[in-house]
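@channel sequence for tomorrow's demo:
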Amino acid sequence: MKNIYFSDITVWAPGLASDDELWQEWANDVIPIEQIKESPKLEYTDPLFRRRLSQITKMTVHVIHNLLEKSHVNPETKIVFISNRGEIEREFTINKGLIEDDMILPAGFSLSVFNTPVSSATLAFGLKGGYSVIYPSKGNFKDAFRTAAAPVLAGTEKKIILVYADELVPEVYGEKRPDDNYPLAFAGIIASDKTTNCISFDDFSNVPESAQEFIKLILK
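C-alpha cells (generated this afternoon):
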C-alpha cells in the first residue's frame, strides 16, 4: 500500500477547549475530558445560525473552522465525517415525541439527522467539495479511517478533510450510557503527499480502534 499522510489536526473537548498544553496533558493521561455539555461559543458565526445547534454540531463547526484557519485548505476539498452516535440527544427527543405525540416537527427532524454537524459546517464556511458520513460498526475508528482514506489511496483525491465528533450521551440513557462517554471532536487532512509535521501511514496496523487513542497517537 502506498503511504498516506495525516496532518494539521485541530481538536476540541469540554475542559480542554483547543488549548495545546491541556491536550498534551490529556494525551499523557494527566487530565481527563470533562463529561459535561459544554460547547464552543462559535463567535465567528451568525447568532441566528448557532442558536439552535447541538453540542456535536458546534464542536464539528469549530474544529473545521480551526482547520481552515490553520491549513488554508481549498474550500472544494471533500470532507469525510465520522461519528459513533451522531445527534443522539436530538434523536432521543424526536423518538420521544413520536411515541408520546405521534408526530415529528420538521424543524426538529432537520437538525437530528446524521449529517447535520458536517452539513452545518459547509453552510457556515461556504465549503463546496461535498461530504460523506460514516457510522462505523461497533464504533471501530480504524475501519472508518480506512474507508475515509480510500479516495486518497485510490488516487481519485489528492487530499480529504477528515472530521470526527461525538457528543455527551444524555443522562436519560442511564446504565445504557457507554463507558467512553466523552464529548470531543477533531479534524485533520489525509493526503497523498508528505507535508511538514505529518504522520505517515504505510498500512493501517498502527491506526487505533478508538478515536481517542488516534488523537493521542497524533499528538504524541
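heads up for whoever presents: The mean pLDDT is 90.
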